[in-house]
Amino acid sequence: MGKIVLYLAMSVDGYLADQRGGVDWLVGDGSEPDAPGSYPVFLDTVDAIVMGWTTYHQLVTELSPDSWPYEGRPCYVVTHRKEENQEGIFFWNGELTVLVDQLKGEHEGNVWICGGASVAGQLLKEGRIDRLWLSIIPTVLGKGVRLFPELSQELPLKLVGTEHWNGIVDLVYEKR
């Protein structure tokens, strides 16, 4: 059985995106510009990907408009829109918890919660995230799209790993 992993980058003050939804600030401090970071190693552990419509739309229109970056891995886009499935991309209109529970049972590797804030927040509230892998970008935004929603109860975590590269610190937590 796989794990549901929220792997995201955020600012030091807890934002996933700036006020306009932009992510051009997702860079290190330049101290190790050629460092690959944790992403390539993490991606090798991923069997399936889940993201919200906003993240999907930003990928296909802005961040990677000419090629799908997750070729070879099934990707589920959570949306209320009626869209036609594409090769390897499935549009999910049902309950988010049903989807992640199903994927967790079907896959041995990680199910990556790729974004965005709404999808992550819903799964955090429902206790469905097994591991949080947060890349803290050396930037303070002050405003923007927050990662963590208000929760009805605290979420106790255990630190299971850390890395740093190019001014970015990765913090890896699991539920206690």
Task: Describe this structure as you would to a colleague.
By secondary structure, the protein is α/β, with parallel strands linked by helices. Helix content is 20%, strand content 33%. The protein has helices at 39-43, 53-63, 96-106, 117-125, and strands spanning 4-11, 15-17, 46-52, 75-78, 89-92, 110-115, 131-137, 145-146, 157-165, 168-175. The relative contact order is 0.28. The mean pLDDT is 94.
Q: What is the element layout, followed by pairings?
A:
Elements: E1 4-11, E2 15-17, H1 39-43, E3 46-52, H2 53-63, E4 75-78, E5 89-92, H3 96-106, E6 110-115, H4 117-125, E7 131-137, E8 145-146, E9 157-165, E10 168-175
Task: Quickly list its features.
176 residues, alpha/beta, eight-stranded mixed β-sheet, two-stranded antiparallel sheet, 4 helices, 10 strands, globular
Integer-rounded radius of gyration: 16 Å
Q: What portion of residues is helical?
A: 10-25%
- H and E string: EEHEHEEHEHEEEE
Given the structure, what is the number of helices?
Answer: 4
Distance between the termini: 19 Å
Give the overall shape, derived from the CA principal axes.
Answer: globular
Reading side by side through the largest sheet, how are the strands ordered? Answer: 5-4-3-6-1-7-10-9
Brief sketch in words of this structure:
This protein has 176 residues and is α/β, with parallel strands linked by helices. The chain contains four helices and ten strands; from the N terminus they run E-E-H-E-H-E-E-H-E-H-E-E-E-E.
